[in-house]
Structure formats: structure tokens, C-alpha cells
Amino acid sequence: MPESPPLQEVESLEDRLDQLVQAGNIDAISELSEELHPSDVADVLEALDEGQRIRLLSSLSVELASEALAEMEDGEDRGDLLAALEPAKGAELIQELADDDAVDLIGELEPDEQSRLLAAMSVEDAGELRELLEYDEETAGGLMTTEVVSVIGSLTAGEALIEVRHQGREVEDFYTVFVVDGTHRLLGTVRLDHLVTADTESRVEDLVEPVPASVPPDLDQEEVGRLIGRYNLASVPVVDSQGVLLGRITFDDVIDVIEAEQTEDILRLAGVHDEEELRQTWTESIRTRLPWLVLNLITAAVAASVILFFEDTIAQITILAFIAPIIAALGGSSGTQSLAITIRRLTLEGPKATRGFVAKEILVGLVNGAVLGLGLAVIAQFIPGGTPLLGVVVMLAMWVNQIVAGFAGAFIPTTLERVGVDPSVASSVFVHTLTDLCGFFLLLGLATWFLL
Amino acid sequence: MPESPPLQEVESLEDRLDQLVQAGNIDAISELSEELHPSDVADVLEALDEGQRIRLLSSLSVELASEALAEMEDGEDRGDLLAALEPAKGAELIQELADDDAVDLIGELEPDEQSRLLAAMSVEDAGELRELLEYDEETAGGLMTTEVVSVIGSLTAGEALIEVRHQGREVEDFYTVFVVDGTHRLLGTVRLDHLVTADTESRVEDLVEPVPASVPPDLDQEEVGRLIGRYNLASVPVVDSQGVLLGRITFDDVIDVIEAEQTEDILRLAGVHDEEELRQTWTESIRTRLPWLVLNLITAAVAASVILFFEDTIAQITILAFIAPIIAALGGSSGTQSLAITIRRLTLEGPKATRGFVAKEILVGLVNGAVLGLGLAVIAQFIPGGTPLLGVVVMLAMWVNQIVAGFAGAFIPTTLERVGVDPSVASSVFVHTLTDLCGFFLLLGLATWFLL
To answer: How does pLDDT run across A60-72, given as a tens digit for each residue?
Structure first.
């Protein structure tokens, strides 16, 4: 009887695998792999070069090889690996997978490679996969599996259990039994645990529960994740406009989506636009980051060009060259704070979450700006050239710029979301440019006005 | 037979609720609520003031009221609400909940309020909750429920199903049947769907599967989330050092953890330290953000003070006051890019993911820095006072600062993680201070050296 290995033992197994990977000993890895979870085998694959990957995949059981391939990270050229296999071998691996995982993998191939692989499969399997390939991979249809367990409402619990037993042999990882009418329209669900614990003579239609949510196939995957998280669903049904059950999406796919979407949000806020960046090589990283940095160079230069108009002022009051970057930096910090909060709420709760948000951020900027302005005015008194009047100018510039930062950090992403642009993409550049520009202009304008 | 409502209908129900909430019509809300999912009722509660909340909770069925209370956001003063209820009512709601949700709620009360509530419960329930309260709420023990379905390995599938039926009446939302030996040590799991689809005469021990992961009760919740996401588990068992099954953690708790941890990462990167900020009022937001901004004011002033040492240089070459903030801004941007990538990998994959990361970021900085340096040098040629030699100085300062940014963005969080400090907390300040300081020093130092 297999015992669950304690965490300690898994660690040392990892070390042994590391050594074998370093040594490129594929045969020994293959032998060890049969005891591993597919996710762990996926890690091993990621550490190997392509030739080694192909040898390892070929030497593993079809079941383990296919699952491991499916569990590899998206950025790891799974498509290239699949394309490099013999078409017959590739088709064998794909057919072994649940259809949602199969479609994810095939989706990474070039069109001609897809056709070659589909041609090597049974007509039925290929047809099913072709249908699923029609859906955008970032929608509910792209996430769903058509492999569901469903029973008709008029059965008894006992009859339904026999039916579930029968269908369950074909379907992996099902948690929910869907209840449909004669035309396959979704009536609701009956939880497997309820079916098992019910009297065998009771009718399924008396046990049926309405689904808290069902989704159309074209719903964005981010919205699907929100629903599953909100209602704690192990799986959510996908239905067409007539209410006919098309498939289901399970929590594990959604955990991946939530992680991917959040990674996207974080990286975009930081000016890294490609969600696959986590796994990229350094040359790929340059390609994804440099365009944003160049844009940033231009916007920073535009904002700083305000300084050029006030060269005379700076030449006479050089302490302003010390103050200006501080006001710009704090504007950027506050703007980023507002931005992060706003984008986070937009991601977790959708657009309606932002009611009253701009007003709140302006209020926060009003108070924080007063404190920071006063602080910087005091600091300026200790610098040679710092006068009380300069303190007032510094204070005003910081104060107003903080209010601008709060406003921009909340208003820009909310507006972008309303007009249908992903707010995490461009907000950061807008906000920083605006706070730099305003900061420089306020400080140098006020200084020219009051101090010269 | 209840039909699943199409999305459209839910929207209009929402509108009706909105109107009732605006009007404060608690009786009508209460009537409508009985048709809603507890998560939706939780939203309604969040929109009401405390007096209205208490009236609504008192008028709902105990089952719905308790679930709705459990589904309210953490930041929404659920503890205050619970404390404001009659102790008998509060105890009734708590006892209705699964023990993990009950502990979460009780954990938000002050110690004396906890005692009062526990005293109003049955001795048995109170004892169980007291045991769970011992665990840190951010660990596996704090997330787990002790309500598990478990069978002894020597039973037949048929006997096990009867046992599962019996235990299942008491346990909510179970997806996995745990298999234990006579001393309650975990042997593995048998999936409910496998048990249902197996021949009734087969032995459970022949169906048992090893668990891909089990966790000790003191494991950090972030690590629990990583394991569940990695192995696609509907639930993960919690075992003590002897392998005795203590409880289980289900995917829905983990989705909440993943969302909370990622929110924390995003907000901390942006300098907002409190994970509850999403729901805070504007005064609370000021309290959580202002300390970080004040720290930021100090570090920005320290970095900018470099400029004071070069006042003469700036007075003579005022174009430097235009160049300096651009070099600092781009250093901050590149540093944030490295930082976001590094922190994201640390969160998703743990410390071992960062091997070779610092070297990669330095390489990226080397190339991006060359391009950006050249770009800014060219821009400088169009500004009055821009000379080829100034171009060289600008180019060098930008270049070296970009390498520093890449290095700092990868090295600082990795090092903080190694010494056991959460890298998302302080990295951003360190990196920005360093890139500002280096940027100013490089530009003004080189300019003083070569141009004066």
C-alpha cells in the first residue's frame, strides 16, 4: 500500500533528480519519473534540452508523458516539443489527454503542424478537437472540457448513480453531476456527495440545485475566474444561448488563469507587457521590455523638457535642481499607490467596484500632500539657499502634485476600463508622465513667479 | 424545478437589490435574499450600515445568514458585526458554519468577545474551535477544516460507500475520501468518483492513491496555495509529524489565499503595505500609505542630496537639470521591471527559481542601457548646450545606471527572501533609492570630471 511520502523525502528525491538532469542520464530519470506526479516530471522536462526532452517523453508511459507535457509551463515551447515528436507519437499523447488540455497544447502549434497532428488521430477525436479549437483560448470556450457527467432529471438517485458510474469511467476529475432535460438543456446540478448520501429511491429532480452561475462560451476567462472564486465552485457549466450544456470548466484551470491574469497585472504595472516573461531568456526579455523603456524615455524627456523652459530660474536658484526630482518621485509613488489599488479592484471585482473611487483618492492626496509638502518645506530650510518663501513654494508644488497623482491614479485606469482598454497596460506611463510634468511645472513655475 | 437563471436575469435582480439597499428596505431585501447565493447576500450586507446589517442578518434563515457573514470581505468589519449581535444569535450562526469558516470569523473578535461567544456554544463545539484557534491564521492549520470523510483501508468499496454516505451527511463540500489505518494515520486517498465507479466488492486499499502532497499544520499558506495549484488538488490533507490526519484544506480557501497573496504582492510593490487596503475608507488609506510615503520622502531626499554636492556644475551646465531626472526615471523603470519579474517568480515558484537570475538581469541592463544611453545622448544634441562630449557623459551615466537597476532589481529581493524577509515589502524603496542615487552621482560626477 503506497504511503504518502513526507515532505522531507520529496526534497531528497528532487536532489537526486537534479543530479541526474545535470548528468543528462535520461534512462535513470525515466525510471524515477514513473513514481512522480506529472507536475514534477514537467519540471524535469523544463530543465532538459530538446533532444533530451524527446528521449524522455518517448521512454515514459503514454499516460505520464502526456500529463507531464500538459503540465509544462506555457512559455516553455511545448508546441515546438510536440511538433518535434513523430506525428503518430504526438497524436497518441494528445488523444490520451482530457480535451481541454489537448486543445491547449494543439493551440500552440503552427496551423500546418496542427493539421498534420489531427490527421494522425481518429476522425472522431480530431473532429471534437477541431470544434474546441474554434473558441478563443482566453474565453470560457477555450478553457472548457466537453467531457461532463450528466443525468436526466427524471431518474432516481439509484439509477443516476449507475449512470454516473458508467459515464465516470470515461471522464477524469469530475466533481459535479449535471442534471439536464431531454434536449440536454441544463436544469441544475446534483452534487456527487449528495447523490451518494441520498436514499436510492429519491428522484434526481428533487435533489437538483440551481447553479449559482453558468457561463456562455465567449465569456472572458478573467470573468470565469471571478465567478468560480466568488461562488467557490469546483466546476462551472458552459451553456449556449438556448441553455444547452456544452461543457464545464474546473477550478484547477481557473487557478492557472487567476495566477496568469495576476502575473499579467503585476508585470504590466511594472512595464513588462508579455505574460510569458517569467520564463524568457535574456534576449527575449530585452525584446519585451525595451520598447516600453524607449516609450518611457520619450515621455520622461517630454516631462523633463518643462525644466528647459526654466533654465534661468534653476541657474539662479540651484536648490531647485535638488527639490524637483523629489517632488516628481513622490508624485510617482503616490500615483502608483492609487493605480495599484484601482487596478486591483478592477481585476477582482469588475468596473462597478470603482464608484466613488476617484473622490477617495483625491481626498487621500489632499491629506498626504499636505504632510509631504510640509515635510519637504522643512527639509529645504536646512539646505543652503532655503528660505521660508521657498518653503511655501515647495509645499504648494508638492501638495497640488499629490492631489494630481491621486486623481490620475484612479481616473486613468477607470476610464481606460470603461472604454474597453486593459487598464494595466498603459496606465503606469500616463500617470508617471503626468505627475512628472505637473511636479516640474508647479515647482519651477511657482518659484519663477514668487522668488525671482 | 429551479432553472439556472441566465446572466441577464441576475443583472436585473442586482438592480432591484441596489434600489432596495438605497431605500434601506430591509424586509424586502430579506425576502429577495432567500433566493440568492450567500456570496451575493454578502455583497448586499457590505452595502448596508451596521444597524441595517444586524436587522438583515436577524431576519434571514440561520443557514443563509451564517454563510453570508462568512462570505463578507475580511476588511468589512465582520468581527464588529458579529460582536454586535446577541451572543446567543452569534453562537447560533457560528455553529452553523464549517469549522474553518467559523474560526476565521471568531479570529476577528477581541479575546473577551471570543470568550463570550464560545461560552454561548455547546462545550464540544467550543472545544473544537478553541483547538483550531491555536493555529496561526496564515498557516495550513489556520486554513484547514477538521471535518473530513475518511475510511479504513481494509473495507470493501461497498462498505466504504455506506460509511461515506453516513459521514457525508455531516461534512460539507467533500471531494476526496481519505484512507487511514487503524490509528488514523493517512495512507492516501480514494477519489469519490473512483469509489462510485468501482466494483462494490473491491477493497479500498486496492483503490487507494498516494497523495501528491500533504502538509504539516504550520506550513505557510502561500506554500499551501502553491502545492494545490501545482498538483490541481481539490483538497490537500493536513497531517502531524506522525502522519496522523488532522484535517483538510479545499481549493476554494486556496483561491482566496492566492488572490490575497497576489493582492499583497501588487500593493506592496506599489508601496501599500496593508492587504486590507482594497476595502479601506479614505482615512484608513492615509494611515496605511502615509508612513511609506514619508520614508520615501526621506530616501528621495537622501538620493537627491547628491545633487547638492554638484550645485556648481549644475549652475554652469543647466542642461544637466533636464538630464538628471530622465536618467533617474529610467533607472526606476528598469529596476521595477526586474523587481516585478523576480518577486513574481519567488511567489509562484519559491526561492530555488532565481538561480542565474541576477546574471540575466545584468545582461538585460547591459543591452537596454546601451540603447537608452545612446537615445538620450542623441536627444541631448538637440538641446541648447548639448555637445558631443556631453552626449558621451549622458550615455555612460544611463548605461551604468541601467546595469545597476537590473542588478538591484534581481539581487535585493532574492537576498531578502534568503534571509527570511518578505521581498515584496521593502525591495521597491531600496531599488529606487539606489537607482536615483547612482543615476545622479554618475551623471554629475562624470560631467564635473569631463566637462568643467
So the answer is: 999 899 999 888 8
